[in-house]
Design a protein that fits this description.
This protein is of the alpha/beta class. The chain contains ten helices and 13 strands. It has one domain: Ribonuclease Z/Hydroxyacylglutathione hydrolase-like (Metallo-beta-lactamase, Chain A), CATH 3.60.15.10. This is Metallo-beta-lactamase domain-containing protein.
Length: 274
Amino acid sequence: MSVPKSASKLVPEDPAKVMVIRDVVPNTITTLSVPFLRAGLMKIGGRGTLVRLRTGSVAVFSPAALTPEVKRKIESMGTLKYIIAPDFEHHIFVSQYNKEYPQAEVIGVEGLPEKREGSSDTRGVPFQHVFTPKNKLDMHISSEFDDEFSYEYVHSHANKELVFCHRPTKTVIEADLLFNLPATEQYSKSGLGAQSGLLTRFFASIMNTSGDMIWQKRFLWYALGRDHVAFGESAKRMMKWDFDRIIPCHGDVIETGGKGVMAKALQWYLEPKH
C-alpha cells in the first residue's frame, strides 16, 4: 500500500505491519493506531477512528492508512458514508478513502480543500461539508449523523479543530485539541520505544494529562489560541456535552474521566486566567 510522498517522513512505509486495530466499544467504535513522527522527529503517534452509526453507516475520523485489514474492518461494520478531516493537518489519507469509497461524504474545515488542491498528492477530492465561523452553529451533516453526534468547530485554534462527541457512547473524538502522550499503543507494534529520543521525551513530558496539565494549558493559550474569546466560547459549548471517554489522535485513549481531563486542559478558557 502506497504512502503519499508528502507524508513519507511522517508515517510508516508499511502501515499494515505496525497498525493496532482495536474495538474500543464493540460493534460501534474501532481505533486504528499507528506510529507518527511530528516534524519527522518526535514520536507522538497517529490514530484514525471508525464509528458505526445505528443505521449501519460508518464514519472515519482522521483517516489512517487504508490497509486491507482496515477495509475488512469497515466491511464488517457497515457502509462507509462519512470521511472526516478534523483539522488542517489530519487529512493525509483522505484521498485513499475517497478513491475507495467515492459515495462517502467528505467533511472538513475552511481552507483545507484549497490547501489540498495545491498538491498533486491530495488534489481532486470534493468536500460536501466545510465548516466556517459563520456556518458552524447552523451546520447539519445529515439526520443519521446529527442524531448521534454533537460537534464544535474551534476555528480560533491554530489548526482549525473540529471536535466530535458521539453521544450514545459518551466519547469525544479529537485531533490536536488535547494530547495524551506518550503514544504507547501507537508504537506497541513498531519495535521502537514510545519515549525513545530526547525530543520525544521532552515533548511527552509536557504534553500529557498528569497533574494540573500546566504545559498543555500554556500550549493551548499561547501557541494555539488565535482568539481567546472565541476559543472560550467553543470550550464552554464542548463542556456542556455528556462524555467520559476521549479518543485523541496523539497518545493513548482516555478510557474514563475524560471530561475532567478536558476541563483541566481548557481551564484558562473556561475561567478567567488571572
